[in-house]
């Protein structure tokens, strides 16, 4: 009965496996047919997904970029291939034919993207839209100086704007150049030479000289030098993870196993992949750009790239500012004519108004902020190639991530153990430490047996040799002779040996396949693998060779016979292999050290655990052993491995070990944090759906039953399950079918099925090609997402380039992926993306604060001009002092915003929508209407107080600039008792002291309040009017409270235009005081100022620099001359601006309190959240 039940179970298992293989083969066949059918339509599918897109990149046709799907070099007979390439599989090409082909096909190298000259890159930085705005401002300043050369302030302003604009462009240029220099250091070194058979002789040739038809020898551990068709294979296995995303090693053989899809056939090996096991021989079929990697790299160029979100936002902001500045300038240019000013005066003041509206320091602030953030991220192992990419990452709403090497470690690791009919978690002793509660017991007999069997059956070892990349780097070093290279090699080996001893088992490089590597890294911390192997000597066969057989794809097992003394045996047979194969070789199993015959219970347990491991995407190895009876196998027995003169089908089952390429440690938490921040994480991989779904579950990308699982569990249709689950796994076949179904549809109707799939919050795309990844990214962008794409392989690079922000792995990433990326994770840690997102969001918030800060002072710079033009008051603020604010006192505090801590909700708020701009109407209202007006009050109140102290009543200043006067002579002295008040010119005109007639027109002049033409005149003698036949003072002068002498006129400030220069400096300081309080109010967008604290020490440095600048402007005589400033008394040092400055701070805090207090408890935001938060 037992044998009958066993046979039935085996038959069912074999039938199920056979059926699954047939279904998989059929699915692959359908997929390949679809892929072939749409190959000639690929370009249209890739670049016309978005409605109305007119510009198409003409560089690379996507169908040509994947022309390998229509190749036939792998399936035609070898004789036909030899004829095609004029070669011989045994003797290779002749030298003459090889030389001809080298001329025809060119070097075996990927075309390097033509680098833009450094000067063009610098020009690009100097000609951004923001830079153009500043260049226009500088040009207007020079124009104003040309129209009014008596005012040199416009000349100074133009020169400084040019200097600042140039410096910021140079800073950005050098920062990006530094990133490029780091990128150059990433370049992988392909072995410079390879073994080639030409003219029947094996010889070394530069890999770059290979041509189609060459016969090459592939050695273990070497990269494949071109696309080759396998001629001979000695258990040759390659790592195709950079192409397909699969982390398992793939066996290569001369047989064509897939007629239609070259990527799936076993008789092709591809350029740039690595031969990890065995060796072989092959014929070159493609070289250089014609290789599969070369064609995929071509998709990178065809996928194109757009401006960063920050660049687009800044461009929108610049348009806002330009429209506002030009509109106000034109309005007041026209008003000037209406009032009656000359054309030149109107133009000069229109230019002044326009320049006052341009935040000259903001470009420098943005550049410095991005540079500082890039450096901060560099400390956290995130390299930013494009400074503006930092903010793009912060606005990301969707991350499309590759699996292998990005989410996972790209290293097979022991996941579970199954022995004694129980499952145990395979926690690594070295990684988890001695205090961890391990499920397995090191002293238990079943574990010891599995441990010994696994190590004795494996051949992987730790590799102590200097890595090949370092050897090649030294050998290729330029400028060193051979002796110097040998010395460097010796030093490198010594250093490597020292570092090797310090490495953990997980860090040490190994020799052997991925599965055996996982085994030795698991068992080494338990007991040294060399010691374990040396404890059992390998038996010898009849040819005196070691009695062991390596794994092969036919038998699906490997075995070894060792000397193993027991009371009943001298030898022991140990076997490992595919679990079903090993289980079939056994008729009994170990259970706590006892041997039990297999029965239905054992059969059921094995099937269940094997299926469970399979569903979890784990690769399973089975182990068995058999002690050979000493009577039949005495010491010295001659084993014959060909005839198998020993029992092989009566073994005792030891156990199973499941392996998986596990997620990186921080990935599950990082994915949760992304979801908390409202960011969707989509896995896009070339791996199998089962493996992809299992890893997605471990990474927290999938947290519930998938649509497919519900279909199987409930027996319902896909459509029904689709509406019951938020988790979906899509096979690449469906994308291909969707593309075919969309043919002929209007643009707006294409991709609707993809949009339905993308609506699921938990999504995995499996078995995707590079072109399909592009379609997925375009679909996400069509949904309005800001898409980040992460990856490390060549197959990821087109999608990385297409994304809004492309992210590549720095350690495991391919050169093509790194070149396509905007950002590189130097430590390959996916969780670093979360750091980048937080920094990106923070920099967006901080740029908002900086812009609001700068625009606030713009209003207090603009309104004095308007007051001067409309109300003809003395000019409260000169253009030079505007420059001192924009590029002097404002720029340092403005820059220190980058060091402010983020708001507490920064990683819990939703990603900003594309309708939410850096500069919104709410921000403009806050900066211009609210704080801008209060800041102007700060300046004007201080200005009025200062002029009052020098004898000018505030009401008397209105229209003082257009009052008619008879100017006194320079030597005249004011005398209130004199009928002419000391004005000798009035005395000359009205000798009798009576004004019987109006002032003669030829004698009338207006006081020059702008320049120093009338600075020495006492204005009490000038502002005289003829009223009722008598000469009377126009104003009721205020008392002169400050008896201060001007260092320039050597006369008191009171009652002179020199007081205006003094008051202008005071107005300037009033704005500075207001901006200090404005800074405090803007340190957070929602948090209370007390919560934000005072940990930003750079803020205090900014204030100190601001204070020192004001001191220098006021008390250094050279600056007084250049900027027209004066040395102030303490009372005029912005003190009078404090009341309005504090009102500004109180309003900012009250506004934020209302935002927090009125937070909506529903999904619909409150009025304060909708209309006040900017």
TrEMBL record:
Record-level GO cellular component terms: plasma membrane
A Gene Ontology biological process term: intracellular sodium ion homeostasis
Pfam families registered for this protein in UniProt: Cation_ATPase, Cation_ATPase_C, Cation_ATPase_N, E1-E2_ATPase
Lineage: Eukaryota, Sar, Alveolata, Ciliophora, Intramacronucleata
Molecular-function GO term, any one: P-type sodium:potassium-exchanging transporter activity
Protein name: Cation-transporting P-type ATPase N-terminal domain-containing protein
Family affiliation: Belongs to the cation transport ATPase (P-type) (TC 3.A.3) family.
Keywords, ordered alphabetically: ATP-binding, Cell membrane, Coiled coil, Ion transport, Membrane, Nucleotide-binding, Translocase, Transmembrane, Transmembrane helix, Transport
TM region(s), chain numbering: 129-148, 154-174, 320-341, 347-372, 851-871, 877-899, 1097-1116, 1128-1148
The species this protein was found in: Paramecium octaurelia
Keyword Cell membrane annotated: yes
Residue intervals of the Cation-transporting P-type ATPase N-terminal domain: 72-146
């Amino acid at each position: 009965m037992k044998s009958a039940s066993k046979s039935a179970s085996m038959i069912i298992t074999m039938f199920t496996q056979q059926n699954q293989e047939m279904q998989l083969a059929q699915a692959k066949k359908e997929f390949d047919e679809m892929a072939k059918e749409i190959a000639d339509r690929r370009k249209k599918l890739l670049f016309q997904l978005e409605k109305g897109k007119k510009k198409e990149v003409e560089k690379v046709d996507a169908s040509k970029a994947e022309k390998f799907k229509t190749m036939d070099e792998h399936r035609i007979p070898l004789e036909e291939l030899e004829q095609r390439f004029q070669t011989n599989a045994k003797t290779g090409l002749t030298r003459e034919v090889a030389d001809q082909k080298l001329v025809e096909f060119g070097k075996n190298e990927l075309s390097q993207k033509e680098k833009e000259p450094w000067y063009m890159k610098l020009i690009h930085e100097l000609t951004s839209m923001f830079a153009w705005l500043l260049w226009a401002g500088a040009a207007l300043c020079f124009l104003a100086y040309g129209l009014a050369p008596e005012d040199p302030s416009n000349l100074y302003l133009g020169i400084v704007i040019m200097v600042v604009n140039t410096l910021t462009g140079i800073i950005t240029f050098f920062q990006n150049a530094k990133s490029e220099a780091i990128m150059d250091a990433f370049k992988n070194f392909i072995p410079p030479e390879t073994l080639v058979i030409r003219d029947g002789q094996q010889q070394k040739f530069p890999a770059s000289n290979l041509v189609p038809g060459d016969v090459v020898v592939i050695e273990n551990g070497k990269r494949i030098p071109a696309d080759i068709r396998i001629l001979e294979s000695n258990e040759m296995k390659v790592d195709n993870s950079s192409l397909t995303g699969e982390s398992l090693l793939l066996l290569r053989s001369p047989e064509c196993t897939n007629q239609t899809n070259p990527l799936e056939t076993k008789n092709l090996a591809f350029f740039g992949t690595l031969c990890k096991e065995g060796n072989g021989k092959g014929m070159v079929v493609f070289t250089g750009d014609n290789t599969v990697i070369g064609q995929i790299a071509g998709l990178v160029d065809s996928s194109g790239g757009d401006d960063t979100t920050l660049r687009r936002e800044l461009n929108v902001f610049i348009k806002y500012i330009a429209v506002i500045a030009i509109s106000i300038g034109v309005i007041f240019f026209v008003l000037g004519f209406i009032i009656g000013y000359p054309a030149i005066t109107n133009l000069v003041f229109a230019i002044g108004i326009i320049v006052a509206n341009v935040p000259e320091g903001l470009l420098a602030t943005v550049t410095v902020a991005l540079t500082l953030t890039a450096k901060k991220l560099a400390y956290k192992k995130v390299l930013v190639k494009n400074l503006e990419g930092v903010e793009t990452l912060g606005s990301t709403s969707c991350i499309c991530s590759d699996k292998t090497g990005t989410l996972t470690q790209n290293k097979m690791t022991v996941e579970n153990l199954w022995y004694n009919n129980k499952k145990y978690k395979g926690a690594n002793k070295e990684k988890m430490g001695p205090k961890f509660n391990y499920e397995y017991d090191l002293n238990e007999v079943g574990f010891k047996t599995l441990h010994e069997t696994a190590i004795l059956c494996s051949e992987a070892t730790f590799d102590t040799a200097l890595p090949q990349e370092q050897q090649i780097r030294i050998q290729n070093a330029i400028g060193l002779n051979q002796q110097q290279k040998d010395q460097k090699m010796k030093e490198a080996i010594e250093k490597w040996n020292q570092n090797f001893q310090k490495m953990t088992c997980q860090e040490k490089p190994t020799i052997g396949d991925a599965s055996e590597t996982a085994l030795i890294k698991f068992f080494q911390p338990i007991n040294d693998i060399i010691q374990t192997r040396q404890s059992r000597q390998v038996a010898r066969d009849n040819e005196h060779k070691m009695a062991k057989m390596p794994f092969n794809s036919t038998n699906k097992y490997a075995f070894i016979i060792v000397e193993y003394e027991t009371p009943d045996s001298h030898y022991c047979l140990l076997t490992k292999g595919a679990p079903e194969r090993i289980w079939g070789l056994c008729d009994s199993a170990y259970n706590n050290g006892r041997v039990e015959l297999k029965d239905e219970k054992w059969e059921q347990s094995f099937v269940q655990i094997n299926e469970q491991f399979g569903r979890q995407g784990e690769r399973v190895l089975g182990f068995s052993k058999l002690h050979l009876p000493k009577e039949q196998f005495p010491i010295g027995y001659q084993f014959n491995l060909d005839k198998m003169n020993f029992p092989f089908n009566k073994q005792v089952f030891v156990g199973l070990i499941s392996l998986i390429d596990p997620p990186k440690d921080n990935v599950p938490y990082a994915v949760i944090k992304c979801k908390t921040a409202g960011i969707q994480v989509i896995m896009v991989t070339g791996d199998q759906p089962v493996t992809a779904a299992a890893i997605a579950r471990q990474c927290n990308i999938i947290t519930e039953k998938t649509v497919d699982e519900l279909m199987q569990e409930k027996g319902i249709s896909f459509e029904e399950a689709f509406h019951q689950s938020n988790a979906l796994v899509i096979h690449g076949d469906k994308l291909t079918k969707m593309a075919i179904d969309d043919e002929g549809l209007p643009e707006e109707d294409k991709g609707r099925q993809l949009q339905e799939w993308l609506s699921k919050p938990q999504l995995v795309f499996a078995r995707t090609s590079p072109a399909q990844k592009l379609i997925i990214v375009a679909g996400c962008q069509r949904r309005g997402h800001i898409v980040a794409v992460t990856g490390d392989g060549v197959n990821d690079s087109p999608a990385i380039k297409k994304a809004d922000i492309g992210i590549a792995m720095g350690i495991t990433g391919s050169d093509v992926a790194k070149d396509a990326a905007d950002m590189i994770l130097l430590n390959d840690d996916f969780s670093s993306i979360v750091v980048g997102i937080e920094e990106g969001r923070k920099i967006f918030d901080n740029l908002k604060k900086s812009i609001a800060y700068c625009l606030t002072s713009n209003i207090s710079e603009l309104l004095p001009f308007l007051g001067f033009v409309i109300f003809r008051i003395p000019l409260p603020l000169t253009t030079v002092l505007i420059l001192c604010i924009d590029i002097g006192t404002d720029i340092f505090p403005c820059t220190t915003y980058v060091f402010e801590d983020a708001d507490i909700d920064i990683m819990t708020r939703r990603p900003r929508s594309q309708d939410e701009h850096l500069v919104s109407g709410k921000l403009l209202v806050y900066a211009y209407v609210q704080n801008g007006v209060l800041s102007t009050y700060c300046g004007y109140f201080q200005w009025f107080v200062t002029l009052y102290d020098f004898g000018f009543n505030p009401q008397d200043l209105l229209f003082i600039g257009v009052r008619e006067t008879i100017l006194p002579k320079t030597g005249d002295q004011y005398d209130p008792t004199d009928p002419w008040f000391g004005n000798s010119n009035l005395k000359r005109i009205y000798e009798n002291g009576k004004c019987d007639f109006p002032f003669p027109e030829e004698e009338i002049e207006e006081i020059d309040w702008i320049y120093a033409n009338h600075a020495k005149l006492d204005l009490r003698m000038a502002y005289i009017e003829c009223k009722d036949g008598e000469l009377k003072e126009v104003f009721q002068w205020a008392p002169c409270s400050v008896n201060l002498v001007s260092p320039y006129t050597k006369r008191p400030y009171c009652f002179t235009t020199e007081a205006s220069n003094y008051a202008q400096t005071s107005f300037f300081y009033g704005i500075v005081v207001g901006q200090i309080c404005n800074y405090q109010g803007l340190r957070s967008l929602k948090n209370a100022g007390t919560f934000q604290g005072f940990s930003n020490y750079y803020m205090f440095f900014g204030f100190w620099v601001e204070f020192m600048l004001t001191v220098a402007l006021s008390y250094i005589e050279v600056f007084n001359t250049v900027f027209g400033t004066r040395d102030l008394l303490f009372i005029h040092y912005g003190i009078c601006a404090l009341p309005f400055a504090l009102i500004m701070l109180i309003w900012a805090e009250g506004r934020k309190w209302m935002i927090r207090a009125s937070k909506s408890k529903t999904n619909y935001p409150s009025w304060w959240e909708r209309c006040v938060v900017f």
